[in-house]
């Protein structure tokens, strides 16, 4: 099975590569913090919950309980309160709409437009985040439906512009350098 190699921690990388909920949570956390921190978050959360990472477990917590878990030092995110509430909303949606199975969001979906719409509807997932996640499913995990590239553009191209392009520590450095170059030009990673 293809593996994401973002964090430098084999166990954390394995969790986000093999557990759909962990991957969704990592992507949710991937804003305004280093990618490694965001993608290590699900592993840290599982440790704090002292059990497997399950949408039903997160959804059963009161939002404020999850906020306190996110705030334990070191905090899971720069903004632990708002990110914990988004993680809770994501877990609730997965329980209510997908029977608690995060992988059901994409597994068996043959229409890339439908998959993109499902990702876009997730709490905390805007247009760009949904495109990057679709690119992860296509490039890294190879489970996106045929035609996914159109819906993930520009993140489906060969530029090292996002976490979807990371398959090694060297690739992480290429993505980081490309983003810095874009920022210096006054451009975004989508340009």
Summarize the structure.
The chain is an all-alpha fold and 191 residues long. 59% of the residues lie in helices and 0% in strands.
Give descriptors for this structure.
mainly alpha
Fold blueprint:
Elements: H1 10-18, H2 20-29, H3 35-49, H4 55-60, H5 63-71, H6 80-98, H7 112-120, H8 127-140, H9 148-152, H10 169-184
Helix pairs in contact: 1-2, 1-3, 2-3, 2-6, 5-6, 7-8
Structural notes for this entry:
The chain is mainly alpha-helical. It is about 60% helix and about 0% strand. It contains ten helices and no strands. It has helices at about 10-20, 20-30, 35-50, 55-60, 65-70, 80-100, 110-120, 125-140, 150, 170-185. The radius of gyration is 16 Å and the shape is globular. The two termini are about 30 Å apart. The model has no long low-confidence stretch (mean pLDDT about 95).
């Amino acid at each position: 099975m293809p593996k994401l190699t973002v964090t430098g921690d084999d166990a954390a990388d394995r969790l986000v590569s093999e557990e759909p909920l962990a991957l969704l949570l990592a992507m949710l956390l991937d804003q305004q913090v280093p990618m490694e921190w965001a993608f290590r978050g699900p592993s840290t959360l599982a440790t704090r919950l002292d059990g497997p990472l399950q949408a039903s477990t997160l959804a059963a917590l009161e939002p404020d309980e999850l906020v306190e878990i996110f705030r334990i030092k070191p905090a899971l995110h720069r903004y632990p309160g708002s990110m914990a509430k988004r993680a809770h909303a994501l877990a609730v949606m997965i329980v209510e709409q997908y029977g608690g199975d995060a992988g059901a969001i994409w597994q068996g979906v043959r229409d890339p437009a439908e998959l993109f719409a499902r990702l876009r509807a997730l709490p905390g997932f805007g247009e760009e985040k949904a495109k990057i996640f679709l690119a992860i499913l296509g490039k890294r995990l190879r489970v996106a439906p045929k035609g996914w590239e159109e819906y993930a553009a520009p993140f489906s191209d060969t530029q090292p512009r996002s976490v979807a392009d990371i398959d090694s520590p060297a690739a992480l450095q290429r993505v980081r350098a490309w983003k810095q170059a874009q920022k210096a030009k006054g451009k975004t990673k989508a340009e």
